[in-house]
Write a structure and sequence with these properties.
CATH architecture of the largest domain in chain B: 3-Layer(aba) Sandwich
CATH superfamily of the largest domain in chain B: Periplasmic binding protein-like II
Keywords (chain A): Cell membrane, Membrane, Transmembrane, Transmembrane helix, Transport
Mean pLDDT of chain B: 89
Subcellular location (chain A): Cell membrane
Family (chain A): Belongs to the binding-protein-dependent transport system permease family.
Order of helices and strands of chain A: HHHHHHHEEHHHHHH
Number of helices of chain B: 17
CATH topology of the largest domain in chain B: D-Maltodextrin-Binding Protein, domain 2
Number of domains of chain B: 2
Largest interface: A-B, 39 and 46 residues
Number of domains of chain A: 2
Radius of gyration of chain A: 25 Å
Pfam family, one (chain A): BPD_transp_1
Structural class of chain A: mainly alpha
Helix content of chain B: 40-55%
CATH superfamily of the largest domain in chain A: MetI-like
Distance between the termini of chain A: 11 Å
Radius of gyration of chain B: 24 Å
Structural class of chain B: alpha/beta
Protein name (chain A): Sugar ABC transporter permease
Shape of chain B: globular
CATH topology of the largest domain in chain A: MetI-like fold
Helix content of chain A: over 70%
CATH class of the largest domain in chain B: Alpha Beta
Low-confidence stretches of chain A: 1-12
CATH architecture of the largest domain in chain A: Orthogonal Bundle
Shape of chain A: flat
Number of strands of chain A: 2
Oligomer: heterodimer
Amino acid sequence: MEPKILPSLQSGSSLAVSAKKRKRRNADQLMSIVFILPSILAIGVFVYGFIAWSGYVSLTNWNSLVPDLSFAGFKNYLFLFKDFRFQADLRNTLFFTVFFIIAVLVMGLMLAVFLDQKIRGEGLFRNIFFFPMALSFVVTGVIWQWLLNPATGVNLYLKKLGLDSLWYTSVKIIPGVEWGKIQFGVPVAVIAVVIAAAWQMTGFSVAMYLAGLRAIPEEIREAARMDGASELQIYRKIIFPIVAPITVSVIIIMAHISLKIFDLIYAMTGPGANFVTDVPGVYMFETTFRGNYYANGAAISIIMLVTVAVFIVPYLISSRKGES
Amino acid sequence: MKKKVWIYAVLALSLILSACSQSSSGQPDEKKNSGKLEIFSWWTGAGEEDGLKALIKLFEEKNPDIPIENAAVAGGAGTNAKAVLASRMQGNDPPATFQVHGGSELNDGWVAAGKMEPLNDLYDKEGWNDKFPKQLIDMVSKDGKIYSVPVDIHRGNVLWYNKKIFADNNLQAPKTFDEFFKVADQLKKKGITPLALGDKEPWTATMIYENILLGTLGNEDYQKLWKGEMKFDDPKVKKAAETFKKMLSYINSDHSSRNWQDASQMVAKGDAAMNIMGDWAKGYFVNDLKLKVNEDFGWVPTPGTDNQFMIITDTFGLPKGVRNAKDVKQFLSVLGSVDGQDAFNPLKGSIPARTDADVSKYDEYGKQTIKEFKAAKLAASLAHGSAAPEGFVTKANQAVNIFVTQKNVNQLIDSFKQASSELKK
């Protein structure tokens, strides 16, 4: 929004006025630099400085309690990509991210459209949908662990109905094609974590979509109705295209959450049998702070950073282009 | 205009400066805090927390001028606490004293990293050298220097069983692997889960394997394995893995969603007949589940480990760079005293590390274990970091976690072999 104000400021008409304005602008600029400097320094040191430090540690031999900063090249990265657990982590993260985003988008849009029908008690429903967002992932993890655990919760009903109650602890990979050291496919146990994560984060996409839907002027709908469009057509041809950019934002935000996920998995399933629900975050925590493989852990975190950057950086670039 | 800018600049600068001065004026407060004696542990469960509190109370009675801060971090087997401790030690902010398992976790970890002070003078002063068993002092020593004071002893090789199930089915608690499988087959036929396992945290499965290793290899070869004098592809180690594989066919199907308490609970409720766990499970049975010792549940050493003692000992040492070293030693001397050990252990459900403690204060299980501890050969636990460095333990837990599902003996042996290159360091 703000950059749009700037051009009007820049367009001075007479020379005297523009000179005065330029002076003022210089002063403004100087002042803004003075004010922004502390946070630039702090972010520079505590964010980018430490990212650089992690990157450096990931290239060293520091794999015990005694710091050993001798250069090791890409040894730690090579180890990881050959490691069963890390290959499983990448597979799990891939399918977790895909299913999680699809679930959040579909359910979010459905619920937002539902709320947009001007139903009675809309406020109540909105609160119900948004409420899980207020919880932390750890709480969500514990709740859903109780709900889905084979010994408790809904699975007891499934068992009574003669259905499989062990999918939560299943080690099945579907279809399970041999690839590298792992079986590639969808790990059944990941579904449980997807349910919990989607339950928590759907409220966010509902809020985004609802805001988008509410921003569409009623006149457009009325005009479409006048032209004889059915309600379904209005949604398909007019409303969904208009809220499409929101989908991109939701995908970016959900992707960076799911690629970095740690707390939910840690509280809910842990790494799982045969690492069917393990993710890089959990591996990084265990290998660094329990196994004292500091360089290895740093390598995992750098890989996580890169995977998130793959999503975020194009988004930032395109949104900057949009602004200018 | 210029003037205004300068005013803002000065303002900003003074803000920064005041922020800095605030943080530096914060430091003396911290120094005051470090006058408190910070006891770092993972004792937050029922029983163990009571034990720690009793110990702190005893210390405060004797030293009313030294305030204590109980800095316990929750999490089974210290999994979270160890992570917190590692960060603090790396950042040169050690707690006054911290819980550490005797053996490799202490010696190859903190002592090798040069973070611990030797305590030989304290041992001499208190006359402890002949009060603790020699094998135990060796576990907390490196190159003749003693680095920590053991407070309790836990036994890792215990098979717990539901007495009612065994009586109803006319079964005897198994002492050998053959007996174990015979009993397990009979139970399975009756539709009872023979062995309860909760390996959401994989160290519980690693404990089963280490106990099978001890039962298959015997004490001497088991020791050799961790010293690197025996190879992991030795046929005996492989045989132990085969036994482990066979044992895993008798476990509950939802094992990966349970923790060790859930597994103990299965035995307590009669959902499963047996469980292999360290004797902190007794504390859980008695304190949390209100079961009666030797009435509701019984115990035997795990198959083939009669007269052997898989030892897990909690010890406390003196980190380097602690400001109140004298106070820490004061605490350690209470910790190592007969009074201290007898205040702590009956509540925690462990047995005292000293051989001259008051036996009458312990329950039936404790009395028997104290007696057996004196006669038994000690073996260091892998799952609890006494036999091998943390790095190896992490790798071993990963390998076991994969094995429980894939049951590939050769792969397990290979993983151990690969990780064992670290043992020789």
